Amino acid sequence: MPSPTHFNLGIPQRYTAVVFAFFMAGIMAFLMSMVIVAANSGLGLGYAQRVLHAYQLAMPVAFVCVMLVRPIVIKLVALSIKPS
């Protein structure tokens, strides 16, 4: 029986990069939506609704961006790290 803190969606391991990109994009898009909405229109009434509205656009854009820049980031990391 799996522990309560572990879950498995059954996604094959070959999709690890896509799943990582999905979660990374989702979390970052949500956090950025929260900050940008607060900066532009404040934390008043309707804040949560405005954040969710911004997130509807931000999430797919963030996912595509993460997938596009992933190969560049991998190369930059390889150039930055000293081999052991």
Write the layout of secondary structure elements.
Blueprint: H1 16-41, H2 47-80
Helix pairs in contact: 1-2
Order of helices and strands: HH
- Rg calculated over all Cα atoms: 17 Å
Mean pLDDT: 92
In terms of per-residue confidence, which ranges show pLDDT below 50 for 5 or more consecutive residues? none
**How many beta-strand segments?**
0
Helical residues, percent: over 70%
Q: Any idea what the shape is?
A: extended
Structural class: mainly alpha
Largest sheet: none
Number of domains: 1
Describe the structure.
- This protein is mainly α and 84 residues long.
- The protein has one domain.
- Helix content is 71%, strand content 0%.
Key descriptive features of the protein:
extended, 2 helices, mainly alpha, 84 residues
Give the structure's gist in a few sentences.
The chain contains 2 helices and no strands. The chain has 84 residues and is an all-alpha fold. The protein has one domain.
